[in-house]
## 1
Amino acid sequence: MTARRRDAGPPQPGASETETLAGFLDYLRDAVAAKVAGVPEPQVRTAGVPSGTNLLGLVKHLTHVERWYFLGERTSDWRRTMRPSAGETVDGVLAGYRDAVAQANAVIAACTDLTLPARRGPAPSMRWVLVHMIEETARHAGHADILREQIDGATGR
C-alpha cells in the first residue's frame, strides 16, 4: 500500500520572526506525528535501522526534547528517551507529545524578546532554542519519513 499524506504546508511569508519560526516548528511537529499515527503494533516500534531507531521512539524522544528546551524539565538518560517501554502506546506517546507541544507553544507565545534566555536558562536564547528545535525536529522527521516508508510505503510530509 502506498499512501501520500497531504498537509497544510509551511507557514506563509510575511509573519513576524517568532510566528515564522514557531510556524515552521509546528509544521514539522505535525509531520512527525502524522508519520506515527495509524501505524499498528508492533511495526510502530520495529527498528528499521541497526541503531534501533523506531517511529514510536522518535516521538517519545522529541517529547523529552520539547520538555527540556521549552519547559526546563531535565532528562537523565537521553538514550532511554528513544526506547518506548512495553506499556507505552501509540495513543499515549502521541498525547504526551501533543501536550508537550502545547505547553511549549504557550512558552513561545509568552516570549516578547527572542534574545532572552529560554526557560532552561540561563542560556541559550529563545531564538537559538527555536532554530535548534526546527533542526532537531526536521532531522527526526526525515528519519520518520524513511521508517514509515519501510513499514507500509506511505510517503509525503
## 2
Amino acid sequence: MVYSTRVLDAPTSRGTTWPVHEVGRNADIFDPEGARLLKAGSSLVSNSTHLHSNGGDTRAHLEVGFRFHPKDYEPKYREAPFFLGSGSDIDIKAGEKDQELHAYTVLQRPTKIVTFEPHLHAPGDRMCLEAIWGFNVETLSCVGYDHNWVRGYTFEDDYQPLLPSGTILHIIGYMNNTEQNRNIPDARNWQGAGNRSVANMFIDLGMRLSMSEEQFQEEMALRRERLNLTVNDHVIGCPLCLVIPQPSR
C-alpha cells in the first residue's frame, strides 16, 4: 500500500509521504535527524492499494502506529527526492533462474542511506545495492527476497553509507522464474512489468536523506571521530571518509 498523511479540509496543504507498507513488513526506523512531519488533524490516504481478487467482497484491516520525538524537535535532514528502479524495462524469460535486472541513478547532492528495501514481485530472488565513485565499486548491501515476507534493512549507526554528489547508485535484481520458486504460478510463462504480484516491479524503496556539502563534511568528521579512523582504515560506503584534512600549521 502506497500512502501519505494530510489534512483533508486543507486541500492546498502538502501531505507527508511514508514508506510503502507490504506483506510481512517490519517497522520503519527513521534516522534520528531525519524524521517526517505528521500534522495535527491528519488522515491516512492511499492512492494505490494492491489487493488480490478472491471472488467476494472482503474487508481489509490495517493498523498504523507512530512514535513521536519530543515537542521541540526539528529535523536536520530532508528526504532525498530521487527514484531508483525500473517500472517498464522488465522482461523475465520463462523457465530460467538468476536473470538480472539493472537500474542506475546519479546522486545530485550528498546523501546518507538509512535503509535498503528491495521491492520485487513473485519471481524476485534477491537484490544488491552498489555505489560507484570513480573507479571504486562497493557493494553496500545484498539480501534475499521473498514476496510473502517483504523486509526493510536498516543500516547501523555510523555505518550508514555517506555518499558524495556524483556517486552512481546501482541496483541488481535477480529473478527466478522456475518451478523451484514457490511464488510462481506457472513458470512456463514470461513476465513483464505491472502492479500485480504475478507481474513485476524492480525498485529500491529504501529511505535516503539529502544534505548540503557543509552537512556532509560535518557527518564525515563525526564518523572519523567516533570510529577513530586513520588513513590506513577503510569504511564501506563512505569513499571520502578517509580523505582526512591535514591540520593547519
## 3
Amino acid sequence: MKYLNELKNFDAIRIYLAAPEEMLSWSFGEVTKPETINYRTFKAEKDGLFDEKIFGPVKNYECYCGKYKGIRYKGVICDKCGVEVTHSRVRRERMGHINLASPVAHVWFFRGIPSKMALLMDISPRSIESVIYFSSFIITQIDGTKKAQAISEVEKDLEKSKRIVEKERDNETKDMEKEIEKLSKKTNDLVAQEEALKLKQKIQTLYTTYERKMEEQERTYRLIQRKVESVELYSVLSDNEYLNLANYLDMFTRAGIGAEAVEGILGTLDLNALATQLREDLEVAKGQKASKLAKRLKVVEQFRKASIDPQRMIFDVVPVIPPDLRPLVQLEGGRFASSDLNELYRRLINRNNRLKRLLDLGAPEIIVRNEKRMLQESVDALFDSSKQRQRTRVTRGKKELRSLADMLKGKQG
C-alpha cells in the first residue's frame, strides 16, 4: 500500500524510449500463443494472453491446478503448474512480452509529424515509410572506388548488346543479299529484277527496324547509367528499380529493406558529431534549408539530452500489458466481451508465429518479406491505430479497434 500511496503523489510523468533489455526486465514471461481462455473450463490457456504462470493467479492465493490454496502458501511457486501463490491483484501489474521474429519500427517515430526518424536520417518521410513497409530498398553501404567500375560495366554491356543486335540483323539479311546477288545476274529477266528490288526494300526496312532497336537499347542503358551515377549513401530505390540495377549495384553497394535496414543506419549515427555539423551548416544556410536544418538539430539535441540511442526506435520485443487492463468479461448466455487489445495482440502473435515458421522452413524471400510487412502493420495497429495506413486499419465489423494510444487519450486514459 505504501508503494501505491507514493504513486498517488507525483508532479510529472516522463515518457521515454525503453531498450529491449529493459522491456524484458519488466516481463514475467513470454506470451507465445494467441489464445485467452479455454471456453469449456473457463481457465486461462498456458503461454496465452491470460496465462496464470506469467501474470499471476486468477483466484487469491490459489495456483492454477489447485494444489496450493490459502494465504499460508504465499510466495510458493507450484511445482506442478508453475504459478506463484499470491494475491490476484498482481494481474493488474505483471507484464509479459512477445519476442518478434523480425525487428519492427515504432509507428510514432516514422509516421508522426514531423517524422523523427526521417529527420535524423535526412530522408523524406514517404521514402522511410516505403522502406519500412518493404516496398523500397535503401542503400546502407557504398564503395566510391568501385562505382566508376560499375558505370564502365554498363558501357561494356551496351556495346555487347549492340553487337548482338548487329549480328541478328546480319544473320537475317545474309540470305536475302545472296538471293539479290543471284537475281542481279539475270539482267534480261524483268521478274527477277522486280524480285531483287523487293528484297532490297525489305533489307532497308530491316535495317531501319534494327537501327531503332539499337537506339532503344542505348536509351535504356544510358538511363541505367544515369541511375547508377545518381546512387548515393541512403538513396531509396523502388523494388523494380533495384531489381533492374542489381547487377551493377552489387558491385559497389549494399542495400537493405525493412526496419532491419533502418536499424543498421541508425546504429551508425554519431549524434554529437551530427549536432556539431548541423550547427556549422546552420550558420551559413538561409531560407527553407535553414528551417529544415533547425528541425533536424532540434530532434538530434532531444535524443542527445535524453541520452537515447536512436536504435531504440526499432525493436524486436513487444511488451504485453497486464490482463486486468484488457479484461475478458463473461456475459449472459455464455458469450464473452473482450477488450480490443486482446484482438490486436492475437493478430500480432498469429503473424509472428507464422513468420517464425516460414523462416524455419526457408520460405522464398518474397513470401517472407510480405509476412514481415504484415507483422509491422500489426504492431502499428497495436501501438497507435490512428497512425496506421488507411487501407490496413484493423476493424471489428465497422468499428475500428482501439489501440494502446487510444486507451491513453482523454481523461479516462
